[in-house]
Amino acid sequence: MEIFNHNSNIPFLGMRKYSIAIAIFLMLASIALIATKGLNYGLDFTGGVSMRVDYAQPVQVADVRAALTHGGLRDAVVQSLGGTREVTIRFQPKEDPGAVQANGKVNLDRVAADVMKMLQGVRPDAKLKGRDFVSAEVGAELKSDGTLAALFVILGIMAYLWIRFERRFAIAAVATEIHDVLVTLGIIALVQREFDMTVLASVLAVIGYSINDKVVVFDRIRELFRLARKAEPEEILNRSINNTLSRTIITSLFTSITMGALYFIGGAVVSGFAVTMLIGILVGTLSSIFVASPILLWLGVSKKDLMPVTRDNPELARRP
């Protein structure tokens, strides 16, 4: 199945000055948004109260959330615990006289009693099974661990591409991965969508998805460089993008359809993951077409960089 002719010749590399300029602008704008508006961190990172509630009869998560909203707890995160009778509720403590004590600690008994009053006013069969408080220090640790995870993923990708292809490919891939992550986070900061653990997992998934697109193009570049005798690097890179364009668009389209279904059917628990993936798919697809190959061309990739070292071309062994 092809959307575009395999042998089409759209001059993507001819637009490289504009595409790189736009990419740099988006990265700088994203950095500015993250620095000024910041990310809207959820309870996973800011800390808060966590409660487990059990029902004698099956209950819908939407009904629990509606009861809390009616009681004034509008930002609570409600999740099912694998069944239809037990849920977890996470939220920031209510700003009432008894919620926070003079020493700054949360009065869990008072908060839990307030929440159970809201729930039992609608469903008397609600029963508290446990409650806990997650401090902001734990959230700060999650932030640093998430940042380290993203860095290790990017460095691992760089090492893999350096071994599989050549250092110029590794540099181009890492540069575009940084672009994809920054722009995705910039859009999340712009719309102030809640950033929780599911969104962090989605950002890591975006990194993997984006690099998959680029490896497909890089494989085609290597193949064409080895098959072509006298073609110029710009021609090879442009032909590689055109050859893989249908595959890139189709993969992005069907993955987006899956994420769209997850957003509309999966509920509030996974909506953040789905939205972040949709943003990342769009950004990653565009960077695979308009950013990665121009960087390769700027780094000076050539046929010699991808030819295996043999007795017939021993000078490649001395190439830095």
Describe the structure.
It is a single chain. This protein has helices at 16-36, 43-46, 61-70, 108-120, 136-164, 167-191, 197-227, 233-265, 268-290, 292-299, 303-306, and strands at 40-41, 48-55, 77-80, 86-91, 126-134, 194-195. It is of the alpha+beta class and 320 residues long. The chain has two domains: 13-40 and 139-318, Multidrug efflux transporter AcrB transmembrane fold (Up-down Bundle), CATH 1.20.1640; 48-134, Alpha-Beta Plaits (2-Layer Sandwich). Strands 3-4-2-5 form a four-stranded antiparallel sheet. The protein has a two-stranded parallel sheet with strand order 1-6. β3 (77-80) and β4 (86-91) form a beta hairpin. The longest helix has 33 residues, at 233-265. The radius of gyration is 25 Å and the shape is elongated. Mean pLDDT is 83; it is low at 312-320.
Short précis:
By secondary structure, the protein is of the alpha+beta class. The protein contains eleven helices and six strands. Helix 5 (136-164) packs antiparallel against helix 6, helix 7 (197-227) runs antiparallel to helix 8 and helix 8 runs antiparallel to helix 9.
